[in-house]
From TrEMBL:
Residues 13-418 form the Glycosyl hydrolase family 13 catalytic domain. Belongs to the glycosyl hydrolase 13 family. One of its GO terms (molecular function) is alpha-amylase activity. InterPro entries: GH, GH13_cat_dom, Glyco_hydro_b, O16G_dom_2, SusG-like_C. This is Oligo-1,6-glucosidase. CDD domains: AmyAc_SI_OligoGlu_DGase (cd11333). Keywords: Glycosidase, Hydrolase. One of its GO terms (biological process) is oligosaccharide catabolic process.
Amino acid sequence: MKKKWWHEKVAYQVYPKSFRDTNGDGIGDLRGIIEKLDYFKELGVDIIWLSPIFCSPMADQGYDISDYYNIDPMFGTMEDMDELLAEAKKRDLHVLMDLVVNHCSDEHEWFKQAMKDPDGKYGKYFYIEEGKDGKVPCNWRSYFGGSVWEPIPGTNKYYLHMFHKKQPDLNWENEEVREEIYKMINWWLDKGLSGFRIDAIINIKKVLPFRDYPADRDDGTAACTVMLKDAVGVMDFLNEMADRTFRPHNAFTAGEVFNEKKEELPDFIGDDGCFSTMFDFNETVFGESDRGWYDFTRITPDDYKRCCFETQERIDDVGLISNVIENHDEPRGVSRYIPEGDCTDTSKKMLATMSMMLKGLPFIYQGQELGMENIGFNNIDEVDDIATIDQYHVALDAGCSEREALDIIAYYSRDNARTPFQWDESDNAGFTSGKPWLRVNPNYTKINAKDQVGRADSVFAYYQKLIALRKNPEYKETIIYGKLVPYMEDEKNLMAYYRKGENQTLLVIGNYQNESRVVKLPASVKSVLLNNYDDAAISSDGTIHLEGYQAVVMEL
Ligand code: TEU
Ligand code: CA
Protein backbone atom coordinates (compact mmCIF):
# COMPACT_ATOMS: atom_id res chain seq x y z
CA MET A 1 0.00 0.00 0.00
CA LYS A 2 1.57 3.34 -1.07
CA LYS A 3 1.81 5.95 1.70
CA LYS A 4 -0.40 9.04 1.23
CA TRP A 5 -0.85 12.19 3.34
CA TRP A 6 -3.86 10.68 5.06
CA HIS A 7 -2.13 7.55 6.37
CA GLU A 8 -1.69 7.55 10.15
CA LYS A 9 -4.29 10.33 10.41
CA VAL A 10 -7.46 10.22 12.48
CA ALA A 11 -10.76 11.55 11.13
CA TYR A 12 -13.79 13.04 12.88
CA GLN A 13 -17.35 13.22 11.53
CA VAL A 14 -19.35 16.35 12.32
CA TYR A 15 -23.13 16.21 11.97
CA PRO A 16 -23.58 19.99 11.65
CA LYS A 17 -27.29 20.11 12.49
CA SER A 18 -26.57 18.68 15.97
CA PHE A 19 -23.08 20.00 16.65
CA ARG A 20 -23.43 23.58 17.94
CA ASP A 21 -25.99 26.33 17.39
CA THR A 22 -24.72 29.93 17.64
CA ASN A 23 -27.80 31.91 16.58
CA GLY A 24 -30.44 30.40 18.84
CA ASP A 25 -32.58 28.76 16.16
CA GLY A 26 -32.02 25.29 17.67
CA ILE A 27 -30.07 24.11 14.62
CA GLY A 28 -26.31 23.62 14.57
CA ASP A 29 -24.42 25.88 12.17
CA LEU A 30 -21.04 26.56 10.56
CA ARG A 31 -20.14 29.26 13.05
CA GLY A 32 -20.61 26.66 15.77
CA ILE A 33 -18.04 24.47 14.03
CA ILE A 34 -15.59 27.34 13.42
CA GLU A 35 -15.67 28.19 17.13
CA LYS A 36 -14.80 24.57 18.02
CA LEU A 37 -11.90 23.92 15.64
CA ASP A 38 -9.51 24.04 18.61
CA TYR A 39 -11.60 21.33 20.29
CA PHE A 40 -10.77 19.02 17.36
CA LYS A 41 -7.07 19.91 17.71
CA GLU A 42 -7.18 19.21 21.44
CA LEU A 43 -8.68 15.78 20.75
CA GLY A 44 -5.88 15.20 18.22
CA VAL A 45 -7.82 14.56 15.00
CA ASP A 46 -6.62 15.68 11.57
CA ILE A 47 -9.52 15.29 9.14
CA ILE A 48 -13.04 16.70 9.58
CA TRP A 49 -15.93 15.29 7.53
CA LEU A 50 -19.01 17.53 7.46
CA SER A 51 -22.34 15.82 6.79
CA PRO A 52 -24.26 17.81 4.13
CA ILE A 53 -24.73 21.55 4.57
CA PHE A 54 -25.89 22.31 1.02
CA CYS A 55 -29.30 23.81 0.26
CA SER A 56 -31.88 21.17 1.11
CA PRO A 57 -35.55 20.81 2.13
CA MET A 58 -34.18 18.36 4.78
CA ALA A 59 -36.48 15.48 3.87
CA ASP A 60 -33.52 13.26 4.72
CA GLN A 61 -31.53 15.67 6.90
CA GLY A 62 -29.65 17.27 4.02
CA TYR A 63 -28.99 14.09 2.04
CA ASP A 64 -31.49 15.56 -0.41
CA ILE A 65 -29.68 18.44 -2.08
CA SER A 66 -31.52 21.17 -4.00
CA ASP A 67 -28.44 23.30 -4.82
CA TYR A 68 -24.93 21.80 -4.84
CA TYR A 69 -23.29 25.22 -5.08
CA ASN A 70 -24.76 26.92 -2.03
CA ILE A 71 -24.79 26.52 1.74
CA ASP A 72 -28.28 26.20 3.18
CA PRO A 73 -29.08 29.40 5.13
CA MET A 74 -29.98 27.27 8.17
CA PHE A 75 -26.27 26.40 8.42
CA GLY A 76 -24.90 29.82 7.41
CA THR A 77 -23.35 31.41 4.34
CA MET A 78 -20.68 30.64 1.77
CA GLU A 79 -18.55 33.25 3.57
CA ASP A 80 -18.87 31.14 6.74
CA MET A 81 -17.76 28.10 4.73
CA ASP A 82 -14.78 29.99 3.31
CA GLU A 83 -13.86 31.12 6.84
CA LEU A 84 -14.15 27.54 8.12
CA LEU A 85 -11.83 26.31 5.35
CA ALA A 86 -9.32 29.08 6.08
CA GLU A 87 -9.39 28.58 9.87
CA ALA A 88 -9.10 24.82 9.47
CA LYS A 89 -6.11 25.23 7.17
CA LYS A 90 -4.39 27.43 9.78
CA ARG A 91 -4.75 24.50 12.19
CA ASP A 92 -3.62 21.88 9.68
CA LEU A 93 -7.11 20.36 9.70
CA HIS A 94 -8.31 18.80 6.44
CA VAL A 95 -11.98 19.35 5.58
CA LEU A 96 -14.15 16.85 3.69
CA MET A 97 -17.70 17.46 2.55
CA ASP A 98 -20.36 14.85 1.83
CA LEU A 99 -20.76 14.05 -1.87
CA VAL A 100 -24.39 13.01 -2.39
CA VAL A 101 -24.74 12.25 -6.09
CA ASN A 102 -26.71 9.03 -6.31
CA HIS A 103 -29.73 11.35 -6.07
CA CYS A 104 -30.64 14.97 -5.57
CA SER A 105 -33.69 16.65 -4.06
CA ASP A 106 -37.04 16.80 -5.84
CA GLU A 107 -36.71 20.55 -5.26
CA HIS A 108 -33.53 20.74 -7.35
CA GLU A 109 -33.98 22.81 -10.54
CA TRP A 110 -33.09 19.80 -12.67
CA PHE A 111 -35.98 17.79 -11.24
CA LYS A 112 -38.44 20.68 -11.44
CA GLN A 113 -37.63 20.94 -15.19
CA ALA A 114 -37.95 17.18 -15.54
CA MET A 115 -41.45 17.20 -14.05
CA LYS A 116 -42.48 19.93 -16.51
CA ASP A 117 -41.26 17.81 -19.42
CA PRO A 118 -40.51 14.18 -18.45
CA ASP A 119 -39.46 13.38 -22.02
CA GLY A 120 -37.18 16.41 -22.36
CA LYS A 121 -33.51 17.05 -21.60
CA TYR A 122 -33.93 17.11 -17.82
CA GLY A 123 -36.27 14.15 -17.83
CA LYS A 124 -33.22 12.20 -18.97
CA TYR A 125 -31.33 13.35 -15.86
CA PHE A 126 -33.49 10.89 -13.93
CA TYR A 127 -34.94 7.39 -14.31
CA ILE A 128 -38.46 7.86 -15.66
CA GLU A 129 -40.30 4.71 -16.70
CA GLU A 130 -43.80 3.86 -17.86
CA GLY A 131 -45.93 1.75 -15.55
CA LYS A 132 -46.74 -1.87 -16.46
CA ASP A 133 -50.48 -2.65 -16.66
CA GLY A 134 -51.16 0.29 -14.37
CA LYS A 135 -48.55 -0.92 -11.89
CA VAL A 136 -45.08 0.35 -10.94
CA PRO A 137 -42.24 -0.61 -13.34
CA CYS A 138 -40.73 -3.14 -10.86
CA ASN A 139 -41.14 -4.36 -7.29
CA TRP A 140 -38.02 -2.89 -5.65
CA ARG A 141 -38.46 -1.49 -2.14
CA SER A 142 -36.86 1.79 -1.08
CA TYR A 143 -34.31 1.89 1.75
CA PHE A 144 -37.00 3.86 3.57
CA GLY A 145 -39.89 1.51 2.77
CA GLY A 146 -42.52 1.42 0.03
CA SER A 147 -41.96 1.27 -3.71
CA VAL A 148 -38.93 2.96 -5.31
CA TRP A 149 -41.33 4.33 -7.93
CA GLU A 150 -43.32 7.57 -7.50
CA PRO A 151 -46.05 8.39 -10.04
CA ILE A 152 -45.66 11.56 -12.12
CA PRO A 153 -49.04 13.31 -11.99
CA GLY A 154 -50.92 13.49 -15.29
CA THR A 155 -48.87 10.70 -16.89
CA ASN A 156 -48.60 6.92 -16.67
CA LYS A 157 -44.93 7.41 -15.82
CA TYR A 158 -43.00 7.01 -12.61
CA TYR A 159 -39.64 8.30 -11.38
CA LEU A 160 -37.13 6.18 -9.43
CA HIS A 161 -36.02 6.92 -5.85
CA MET A 162 -33.95 4.26 -4.03
CA PHE A 163 -34.32 6.37 -0.90
CA HIS A 164 -37.10 8.82 -0.10
CA LYS A 165 -39.53 9.99 -2.81
CA LYS A 166 -38.03 13.46 -2.32
CA GLN A 167 -34.66 12.00 -3.39
CA PRO A 168 -35.01 11.17 -7.12
CA ASP A 169 -32.09 9.08 -8.41
CA LEU A 170 -29.79 10.82 -10.88
CA ASN A 171 -29.30 8.88 -14.11
CA TRP A 172 -25.60 8.13 -14.21
CA GLU A 173 -26.00 6.43 -17.59
CA ASN A 174 -26.54 9.98 -18.96
CA GLU A 175 -23.17 11.56 -19.72
CA GLU A 176 -24.61 15.06 -19.25
CA VAL A 177 -25.44 14.17 -15.64
CA ARG A 178 -21.92 12.88 -15.04
CA GLU A 179 -20.43 16.07 -16.52
CA GLU A 180 -22.59 18.19 -14.21
CA ILE A 181 -21.41 16.16 -11.22
CA TYR A 182 -17.72 16.36 -12.14
CA LYS A 183 -17.96 20.10 -12.67
CA MET A 184 -19.44 20.51 -9.18
CA ILE A 185 -16.83 18.28 -7.54
CA ASN A 186 -13.98 20.24 -9.11
CA TRP A 187 -15.58 23.52 -8.10
CA TRP A 188 -15.49 22.46 -4.45
CA LEU A 189 -12.00 20.94 -4.65
CA ASP A 190 -10.73 24.17 -6.22
CA LYS A 191 -12.18 26.01 -3.20
CA GLY A 192 -9.79 24.11 -0.95
CA LEU A 193 -11.65 21.01 0.21
CA SER A 194 -9.31 18.11 0.96
CA GLY A 195 -11.84 15.65 -0.38
CA PHE A 196 -15.16 13.95 0.18
CA ARG A 197 -17.01 11.22 1.96
CA ILE A 198 -19.04 9.70 -0.87
CA ASP A 199 -22.64 8.92 -0.12
CA ALA A 200 -24.48 5.74 -1.14
CA ILE A 201 -22.27 5.55 -4.21
CA ILE A 202 -22.74 1.80 -4.76
CA ASN A 203 -26.32 2.53 -5.84
CA ILE A 204 -25.44 4.61 -8.93
CA LYS A 205 -25.35 1.58 -11.24
CA LYS A 206 -28.80 0.09 -11.74
CA VAL A 207 -29.73 -3.22 -13.32
CA LEU A 208 -31.35 -2.22 -16.65
CA PRO A 209 -33.89 -2.81 -17.93
CA PHE A 210 -35.67 -2.65 -14.57
CA ARG A 211 -37.03 -6.00 -13.52
CA ASP A 212 -38.76 -7.64 -10.58
CA TYR A 213 -36.86 -9.65 -7.98
CA PRO A 214 -38.40 -12.38 -5.81
CA ALA A 215 -40.37 -10.67 -3.06
CA ASP A 216 -38.88 -10.83 0.44
CA ARG A 217 -41.93 -9.32 2.14
CA ASP A 218 -45.65 -10.06 2.13
CA ASP A 219 -46.32 -6.79 0.31
CA GLY A 220 -44.64 -8.24 -2.78
CA THR A 221 -41.61 -5.98 -2.66
CA ALA A 222 -37.90 -6.88 -2.74
CA ALA A 223 -35.15 -4.85 -1.03
CA CYS A 224 -33.62 -2.56 -3.66
CA THR A 225 -30.18 -3.71 -2.48
CA VAL A 226 -30.90 -7.08 -4.10
CA MET A 227 -30.14 -5.57 -7.52
CA LEU A 228 -26.59 -4.64 -6.47
CA LYS A 229 -25.32 -8.16 -7.04
CA ASP A 230 -26.38 -7.98 -10.70
CA ALA A 231 -25.42 -4.36 -11.37
CA VAL A 232 -22.28 -4.53 -13.53
CA GLY A 233 -20.05 -1.61 -14.40
CA VAL A 234 -20.17 0.72 -11.41
CA MET A 235 -16.37 0.85 -11.54
CA ASP A 236 -16.50 2.48 -15.00
CA PHE A 237 -18.39 5.42 -13.52
CA LEU A 238 -16.23 5.57 -10.41
CA ASN A 239 -12.96 5.53 -12.32
CA GLU A 240 -14.20 8.15 -14.74
CA MET A 241 -15.19 10.34 -11.78
CA ALA A 242 -11.81 9.76 -10.08
CA ASP A 243 -9.90 10.54 -13.28
CA ARG A 244 -11.87 13.72 -13.88
CA THR A 245 -11.84 15.02 -10.29
CA PHE A 246 -10.20 13.27 -7.32
CA ARG A 247 -6.95 12.08 -8.88
CA PRO A 248 -5.88 15.39 -10.43
CA HIS A 249 -6.44 17.03 -7.01
CA ASN A 250 -4.86 14.19 -4.99
CA ALA A 251 -8.10 14.39 -3.02
CA PHE A 252 -8.91 12.15 -0.06
CA THR A 253 -12.09 10.15 -0.67
CA ALA A 254 -13.96 7.82 1.69
CA GLY A 255 -16.51 5.71 -0.12
CA GLU A 256 -19.72 4.64 1.63
CA VAL A 257 -19.68 1.19 0.04
CA PHE A 258 -21.97 -1.64 1.11
CA ASN A 259 -22.34 -5.09 -0.43
CA GLU A 260 -19.04 -4.86 -2.28
CA LYS A 261 -17.65 -8.02 -3.86
CA LYS A 262 -14.27 -9.14 -2.43
CA GLU A 263 -12.68 -9.23 -5.89
CA GLU A 264 -13.62 -5.55 -6.35
CA LEU A 265 -11.67 -4.35 -3.30
CA PRO A 266 -8.48 -3.44 -5.23
CA ASP A 267 -10.61 -1.39 -7.65
CA PHE A 268 -12.20 0.44 -4.73
CA ILE A 269 -9.24 1.06 -2.39
CA GLY A 270 -6.16 -0.49 -3.98
CA ASP A 271 -3.14 1.67 -4.81
CA ASP A 272 -4.84 2.56 -8.09
CA GLY A 273 -8.36 2.35 -6.69
CA CYS A 274 -11.04 4.98 -7.21
CA PHE A 275 -11.25 5.84 -3.48
CA SER A 276 -8.63 6.48 -0.80
CA THR A 277 -10.56 4.37 1.65
CA MET A 278 -13.95 2.81 2.37
CA PHE A 279 -15.71 2.09 5.63
CA ASP A 280 -15.83 -1.22 7.47
CA PHE A 281 -19.57 -1.78 7.90
CA ASN A 282 -19.24 -5.45 8.88
CA GLU A 283 -20.22 -4.82 12.50
CA THR A 284 -22.91 -2.39 11.34
CA VAL A 285 -24.75 -4.83 9.09
CA PHE A 286 -24.32 -7.85 11.36
CA GLY A 287 -27.61 -9.66 11.97
CA GLU A 288 -29.57 -7.69 9.35
CA SER A 289 -32.74 -9.07 7.76
CA ASP A 290 -34.62 -7.68 4.78
CA ARG A 291 -37.79 -8.19 6.79
CA GLY A 292 -36.89 -5.28 9.06
CA TRP A 293 -35.24 -4.27 12.32
CA TYR A 294 -37.76 -6.35 14.31
CA ASP A 295 -36.20 -9.43 12.68
CA PHE A 296 -32.55 -8.49 13.25
CA THR A 297 -30.21 -10.55 15.41
CA ARG A 298 -28.41 -8.39 17.96
CA ILE A 299 -24.63 -8.49 17.99
CA THR A 300 -22.63 -10.05 20.84
CA PRO A 301 -19.03 -9.29 21.85
CA ASP A 302 -17.84 -12.42 20.04
CA ASP A 303 -19.78 -11.42 16.91
CA TYR A 304 -18.17 -7.97 17.14
CA LYS A 305 -14.71 -9.50 17.38
CA ARG A 306 -15.32 -11.82 14.43
CA CYS A 307 -16.72 -8.98 12.29
CA CYS A 308 -13.69 -6.77 12.97
CA PHE A 309 -11.26 -9.55 12.17
CA GLU A 310 -13.08 -10.74 9.08
CA THR A 311 -12.67 -7.23 7.68
CA GLN A 312 -9.04 -6.97 8.74
CA GLU A 313 -8.24 -10.28 7.04
CA ARG A 314 -10.32 -9.57 3.95
CA ILE A 315 -8.71 -6.14 3.45
CA ASP A 316 -5.23 -7.28 4.55
CA ASP A 317 -2.82 -5.17 2.49
CA VAL A 318 -5.17 -4.41 -0.40
CA GLY A 319 -5.81 -0.88 0.78
CA LEU A 320 -6.86 1.43 3.59
CA ILE A 321 -10.03 0.56 5.51
CA SER A 322 -11.77 3.12 7.74
CA ASN A 323 -12.98 1.81 11.07
CA VAL A 324 -16.03 3.26 12.76
CA ILE A 325 -17.82 2.55 16.03
CA GLU A 326 -20.76 4.71 14.95
CA ASN A 327 -21.87 7.40 12.51
CA HIS A 328 -24.98 9.50 11.73
CA ASP A 329 -26.75 6.43 10.30
CA GLU A 330 -26.23 4.20 13.32
CA PRO A 331 -27.13 4.09 17.00
CA ARG A 332 -24.47 5.01 19.56
CA GLY A 333 -21.79 2.29 19.47
CA VAL A 334 -21.39 1.98 23.24
CA SER A 335 -25.13 1.24 23.52
CA ARG A 336 -24.94 -1.31 20.71
CA TYR A 337 -21.67 -3.19 21.17
CA ILE A 338 -21.47 -3.27 24.98
CA PRO A 339 -23.88 -5.74 26.61
CA GLU A 340 -26.87 -4.05 28.27
CA GLY A 341 -26.12 -2.83 31.78
CA ASP A 342 -22.34 -2.91 31.30
CA CYS A 343 -22.04 0.54 29.72
CA THR A 344 -19.47 2.35 31.88
CA ASP A 345 -16.51 4.61 31.19
CA THR A 346 -14.30 1.53 31.56
CA SER A 347 -16.17 -0.55 28.99
CA LYS A 348 -16.44 2.48 26.66
CA LYS A 349 -12.66 2.84 26.79
CA MET A 350 -12.23 -0.87 26.09
CA LEU A 351 -14.45 -0.65 23.01
CA ALA A 352 -12.54 2.43 21.84
CA THR A 353 -9.25 0.56 22.22
CA MET A 354 -10.44 -2.50 20.30
CA SER A 355 -11.65 -0.39 17.37
CA MET A 356 -9.09 2.42 17.30
CA MET A 357 -6.02 0.17 17.39
CA LEU A 358 -7.14 -1.87 14.39
CA LYS A 359 -5.30 -1.37 11.13
CA GLY A 360 -6.93 1.41 9.16
CA LEU A 361 -8.05 5.00 9.50
CA PRO A 362 -10.40 5.63 12.43
CA PHE A 363 -13.41 7.90 11.92
CA ILE A 364 -14.66 9.18 15.28
CA TYR A 365 -18.28 10.37 15.18
CA GLN A 366 -19.17 13.50 17.15
CA GLY A 367 -19.83 12.62 20.80
CA GLN A 368 -18.24 9.16 20.54
CA GLU A 369 -15.15 10.66 22.22
CA LEU A 370 -17.34 11.48 25.24
CA GLY A 371 -19.06 8.10 25.31
CA MET A 372 -22.43 9.58 24.37
CA GLU A 373 -25.20 6.98 24.57
CA ASN A 374 -28.57 6.11 22.98
CA ILE A 375 -31.45 8.29 24.11
CA GLY A 376 -34.46 5.92 24.04
CA PHE A 377 -37.97 6.90 22.93
CA ASN A 378 -41.20 7.24 24.95
CA ASN A 379 -43.31 7.53 21.79
CA ILE A 380 -42.84 7.74 18.04
CA ASP A 381 -43.47 11.52 18.06
CA GLU A 382 -40.02 11.95 19.59
CA VAL A 383 -38.50 10.51 16.42
CA ASP A 384 -37.53 12.70 13.45
CA ASP A 385 -35.83 10.16 11.17
CA ILE A 386 -37.75 8.80 8.14
CA ALA A 387 -35.91 5.46 8.25
CA THR A 388 -36.78 4.94 11.92
CA ILE A 389 -40.43 5.87 11.45
CA ASP A 390 -40.64 3.36 8.58
CA GLN A 391 -39.10 0.57 10.71
CA TYR A 392 -41.45 1.39 13.59
CA HIS A 393 -44.45 0.72 11.33
CA VAL A 394 -42.80 -2.38 9.86
CA ALA A 395 -42.46 -3.74 13.42
CA LEU A 396 -46.10 -2.95 14.27
CA ASP A 397 -47.26 -4.53 10.99
CA ALA A 398 -45.25 -7.62 11.90
CA GLY A 399 -47.30 -7.92 15.10
CA CYS A 400 -45.01 -6.21 17.60
CA SER A 401 -46.69 -4.29 20.41
CA GLU A 402 -46.17 -0.52 20.68
CA ARG A 403 -43.63 -1.07 23.47
CA GLU A 404 -41.78 -3.78 21.51
CA ALA A 405 -41.65 -1.53 18.45
CA LEU A 406 -40.32 1.38 20.52
CA ASP A 407 -37.65 -0.86 22.09
CA ILE A 408 -36.56 -2.04 18.63
CA ILE A 409 -36.18 1.48 17.24
CA ALA A 410 -34.59 2.64 20.51
CA TYR A 411 -31.81 0.14 19.87
CA TYR A 412 -31.27 0.71 16.11
CA SER A 413 -32.41 4.23 15.31
CA ARG A 414 -29.94 6.66 13.82
CA ASP A 415 -31.72 9.44 15.72
CA ASN A 416 -29.71 8.13 18.70
CA ALA A 417 -26.61 9.56 17.02
CA ARG A 418 -28.32 12.81 16.02
CA THR A 419 -29.23 14.13 19.46
CA PRO A 420 -27.49 17.45 20.15
CA PHE A 421 -23.83 17.36 21.11
CA GLN A 422 -23.43 17.53 24.88
CA TRP A 423 -21.08 20.47 25.55
CA ASP A 424 -21.82 21.14 29.23
CA GLU A 425 -24.40 20.82 32.01
CA SER A 426 -26.23 24.09 31.17
CA ASP A 427 -29.66 24.10 29.49
CA ASN A 428 -29.81 22.02 26.34
CA ALA A 429 -26.28 20.78 27.10
CA GLY A 430 -24.90 24.08 25.87
CA PHE A 431 -25.90 23.13 22.32
CA THR A 432 -28.38 25.96 21.83
CA SER A 433 -29.97 28.89 23.64
CA GLY A 434 -33.16 28.11 21.69
CA LYS A 435 -35.36 25.02 21.32
CA PRO A 436 -33.21 22.16 20.01
CA TRP A 437 -34.50 20.61 16.77
CA LEU A 438 -34.21 17.15 18.41
CA ARG A 439 -34.45 16.21 22.10
CA VAL A 440 -31.23 16.46 24.11
CA ASN A 441 -30.28 13.22 25.88
CA PRO A 442 -31.27 13.79 29.55
CA ASN A 443 -27.92 12.28 30.63
CA TYR A 444 -26.11 15.42 29.40
CA THR A 445 -25.56 16.56 33.01
CA LYS A 446 -23.39 13.45 33.48
CA ILE A 447 -21.89 13.10 29.98
CA ASN A 448 -20.55 16.36 28.52
CA ALA A 449 -17.36 17.83 27.10
CA LYS A 450 -16.85 20.45 29.84
CA ASP A 451 -16.74 17.72 32.49
CA GLN A 452 -14.34 15.56 30.49
CA VAL A 453 -11.87 17.84 28.71
CA GLY A 454 -8.93 18.20 31.07
CA ARG A 455 -10.02 15.39 33.42
CA ALA A 456 -7.33 12.69 33.28
CA ASP A 457 -9.62 9.67 33.74
CA SER A 458 -12.35 10.79 31.30
CA VAL A 459 -13.35 8.98 28.11
CA PHE A 460 -12.25 12.08 26.19
CA ALA A 461 -8.77 11.91 27.80
CA TYR A 462 -8.56 8.22 26.92
CA TYR A 463 -9.33 8.99 23.27
CA GLN A 464 -6.56 11.60 23.35
CA LYS A 465 -4.16 8.91 24.55
CA LEU A 466 -5.37 6.41 21.95
CA ILE A 467 -4.90 8.92 19.13
CA ALA A 468 -1.47 9.92 20.45
CA LEU A 469 -0.44 6.25 20.63
CA ARG A 470 -1.54 5.64 17.04
CA LYS A 471 0.61 8.59 15.97
CA ASN A 472 3.57 7.83 18.21
CA PRO A 473 6.55 7.69 15.79
CA GLU A 474 7.88 4.67 17.64
CA TYR A 475 4.75 2.58 17.03
CA LYS A 476 2.92 4.15 14.12
CA GLU A 477 4.59 1.75 11.73
CA THR A 478 3.15 -1.20 13.57
CA ILE A 479 0.45 -2.62 11.38
CA ILE A 480 -1.77 -5.43 12.38
CA TYR A 481 -1.62 -8.62 10.39
CA GLY A 482 -5.19 -8.99 11.46
CA LYS A 483 -4.50 -12.18 13.30
CA LEU A 484 -5.93 -13.01 16.66
CA VAL A 485 -3.45 -14.47 19.04
CA PRO A 486 -4.08 -18.06 17.90
CA TYR A 487 -4.82 -19.70 21.22
CA MET A 488 -7.11 -16.80 22.21
CA GLU A 489 -9.18 -16.93 19.03
CA ASP A 490 -11.95 -19.05 20.54
CA GLU A 491 -11.84 -17.60 24.03
CA LYS A 492 -15.32 -16.20 24.73
CA ASN A 493 -15.53 -12.41 25.28
CA LEU A 494 -11.82 -11.98 24.75
CA MET A 495 -10.48 -9.83 21.90
CA ALA A 496 -6.73 -9.86 21.31
CA TYR A 497 -4.65 -9.01 18.27
CA TYR A 498 -1.15 -8.06 17.24
CA ARG A 499 0.16 -4.89 15.71
CA LYS A 500 3.47 -5.77 14.13
CA GLY A 501 6.12 -3.54 12.57
CA GLU A 502 9.75 -3.89 11.52
CA ASN A 503 11.05 -3.73 15.06
CA GLN A 504 8.08 -3.96 17.38
CA THR A 505 5.21 -6.20 18.21
CA LEU A 506 2.29 -4.77 20.15
CA LEU A 507 -0.43 -6.84 21.74
CA VAL A 508 -3.87 -5.25 22.02
CA ILE A 509 -6.09 -7.17 24.42
CA GLY A 510 -9.59 -6.56 25.75
CA ASN A 511 -11.57 -8.50 28.36
CA TYR A 512 -15.03 -8.04 26.82
CA GLN A 513 -17.03 -8.97 29.94
CA ASN A 514 -17.64 -7.89 33.53
CA GLU A 515 -15.97 -10.96 35.03
CA SER A 516 -12.19 -10.76 35.52
CA ARG A 517 -9.96 -13.46 34.06
CA VAL A 518 -6.36 -14.62 33.88
CA VAL A 519 -4.87 -14.91 30.39
CA LYS A 520 -1.58 -16.47 29.30
CA LEU A 521 0.50 -13.97 27.36
CA PRO A 522 2.20 -15.05 24.10
CA ALA A 523 5.54 -13.50 25.09
CA SER A 524 7.21 -11.42 27.77
CA VAL A 525 6.07 -7.81 28.10
CA LYS A 526 8.55 -4.98 27.51
CA SER A 527 6.14 -2.20 28.47
CA VAL A 528 2.50 -1.28 28.91
CA LEU A 529 1.61 1.52 26.48
CA LEU A 530 -2.07 2.00 27.29
CA ASN A 531 -4.41 0.70 29.95
CA ASN A 532 -7.97 1.65 30.95
CA TYR A 533 -7.17 0.66 34.55
CA ASP A 534 -4.52 2.16 36.78
CA ASP A 535 -2.32 -0.89 36.48
CA ALA A 536 -1.95 -4.18 34.62
CA ALA A 537 -1.33 -7.22 36.82
CA ILE A 538 1.27 -9.06 34.77
CA SER A 539 2.74 -12.04 36.63
CA SER A 540 6.17 -13.62 36.38
CA ASP A 541 4.51 -16.79 35.13
CA GLY A 542 3.65 -14.95 31.90
CA THR A 543 -0.01 -14.37 32.63
CA ILE A 544 -2.03 -11.19 32.98
CA HIS A 545 -4.98 -10.71 35.31
CA LEU A 546 -7.61 -8.71 33.42
CA GLU A 547 -10.34 -6.93 35.37
CA GLY A 548 -13.84 -6.52 33.92
CA TYR A 549 -13.69 -4.71 30.55
CA GLN A 550 -9.98 -4.09 30.98
CA ALA A 551 -8.10 -3.17 27.83
CA VAL A 552 -4.31 -3.12 27.63
CA VAL A 553 -1.90 -2.28 24.83
CA MET A 554 1.58 -3.61 25.51
CA GLU A 555 4.86 -3.96 23.67
CA LEU A 556 6.12 -7.55 23.61
O1 TEU B 1 -26.76 6.06 3.58
C1 TEU B 1 -26.83 5.10 2.54
C2 TEU B 1 -27.19 3.78 3.01
O2 TEU B 1 -26.58 2.83 2.58
C3 TEU B 1 -28.40 3.48 3.83
O3 TEU B 1 -28.46 2.08 4.04
C4 TEU B 1 -28.35 4.08 5.19
O4 TEU B 1 -27.37 3.42 5.94
C5 TEU B 1 -29.76 3.90 5.75
O5 TEU B 1 -30.50 4.83 5.09
C6 TEU B 1 -29.79 4.13 7.24
O6 TEU B 1 -31.08 3.88 7.72
C7 TEU B 1 -26.46 7.34 3.03
C8 TEU B 1 -26.42 8.36 4.16
O7 TEU B 1 -25.37 8.04 5.06
C9 TEU B 1 -27.77 8.37 4.84
O8 TEU B 1 -27.77 9.28 5.93
C10 TEU B 1 -28.81 8.80 3.82
O9 TEU B 1 -30.09 8.66 4.41
C11 TEU B 1 -28.75 7.94 2.55
O10 TEU B 1 -27.43 7.69 2.08
C12 TEU B 1 -29.44 8.67 1.40
O11 TEU B 1 -28.64 9.76 1.02
CA1 CA C 1 -28.21 27.80 14.25
